[in-house]
Amino acid sequence: MDPSPIHPYAEVLASVPLIKGARPLSSPPRGVPRLAAADGWVRLRTAKDSWLLAVRVVHSNVAHPHVAQHAGRVAEDPRRWLLAAPHVSRGVGHALAAAGIQYVDIAGNCHLELDGLHVHVEGKRPVQPPAGARGLRAPAYQVLFALLARPELVNMPIREIARLSDVSKNAGAGMLHRLQERGALVGRKGSRRLLDPGRLLDEWLAGYTGSVRPRLVRGRYTTREQNPKRLERLLEEAFAEHDRWGWGGGAAAMRLTGYYRGEITVVHLDAPPTQLPSRLEVRPSSRGNLILLGAPGPIAYEGPRPHVVHPLLVYTELLAAGDDRAREAAEQLRERYLPWL
Question: How many beta carbons lie within 10 A of that of residue 9, not counting itself?
């Protein structure tokens, strides 16, 4: 395993007061079990003690707690793990610290809870990437969504991947090339496969919150009808002549697992019906109970039941909701419908 993804974070940790050394390791010392979810290890040292931490790298800025909490689920003992990301916002840092998840970012924000060492640094601004460096944009994340939703797509023609992702052929080819360069896509044409799609899921979750979802929002409303079941019947009537739409979030989760519904109703659709406000007696509201969203490509509508979007999109939106019941429902959904992740 190449330790290079760990090096920048080890350098940051070495500059933290009280820490005398931070050595990145490509593999654990003899006698320490290997962990498939670890991108590497780092040996921290103070004047009196030392600790070995498994490192999980998230390649996108963490601006929402659910991204890091998803990555942190691999840790049976959070004190043995360290989440590393380009940037962790102040609010997310608080949420992670409260959950006992240790983290570090390139800017120097970090939280460590080790026997004899307690460090919390927050408020440092994200480091600007060097000139010419580019992060992923929404089209690239849409391709990533399609590949995670249907992994066999990696061996389909680029035009088919692009169609199902609703992006250009250049965007589709570009994302496949990026994944190959990073070693996340291996094999030759016709026998390619994603390496550790669960790790790529972390990246999709970060990209959905930061880049994709803001572009998908069609509107948020407060409806006169507050009862979720009755509201769903009204929405089904309103969308009866709509070409492509599907339940997302809690409404979809209830149909798929029967565990959780919640008060918020999420509907994904290609284009908002122009008569929606008048037919349903709704008013725009930033805290409304009805959220209308687009979808990250046609593949998102390939759900296991009529008018239910793909389980990966349901899972993602449940995590974005942020509450404990929604996260529990998301994990049930992942285990039942997304076993490859």
Answer: 26
